[in-house]
TrEMBL record:
The keyword Iron-sulfur does not apply. Nucleotidase that shows phosphatase activity on nucleoside 5'-monophosphates. It catalyses: a ribonucleoside 5'-phosphate + H2O = a ribonucleoside + phosphate. Its cofactor is a divalent metal cation. This is 5'-nucleotidase SurE.
Amino acid sequence: MNILLVNDDGIREEGLKVLAQALAPLGDLYIVAPEEHQSGQSQSITIYEPLKIKHYGSLYGSKLAISVEGKPADCTRIAIGTLNVPFDLCVSGINSGLNVGSDILYSGTVGAATEAMILGVPAIAISAPKKGLFLAQKTVYEVVKHLIDTRAVTTDYVLNINYPSSKFQQILGVKWTRQGLHHHTAKFEKVDEYTYKTVYELKETEESLDSDVVAFRMGYLSITPLIESRYSEEVVNNLKKQKQLNPTFIYDKIVK
């Protein structure tokens, strides 16, 4: 099995090392990761600038390791587009910190995995609190292997895996979850006339028991399938039921 490892924290990040060492028995590993920290890049890509790479030999026991002076999704695209390797799986992580709720919208870890899915490679994104990395170190091999063996990893979705809060010394269970909320508010502190410092604060939100946010808080490993489309058929159907939002009414309003 040919496995592509990517992340958003950079090629020297401990989580990537832990992931590579854990998954080595599953097949040949190819590491393509950012040269520098790239958190918060979502699925953005470099368009106008050239992408420079640096070779790292067989870093962490891989067949090949290179860094990219670009974004996490760039790493996925470079790997799939230039290495001439038929990848069977892409695993992104292990991210330092959680990626649940609205974190997912900004996550370079999830973005890199989503890019792989779009390019035809099944993908998993994995995140763990920095102080909770030991839980991933002990279990990530079995988690990934089981998902492969049961054919749960496909190109229909990305599996977003989050390890529980670092206050737990062991995983209390595993849950299939939906994406929760977990909003952050931003405050801007003025440093000088030309500079602001951004301070993020977690906004408490009510969550249902089947959300990834609650699973994280309660000591569970969460697995959330994420699809590419943000379209909601339920919302569209509800809008159509309103007379003034019916497509025929709108057409008559703006054309006739």
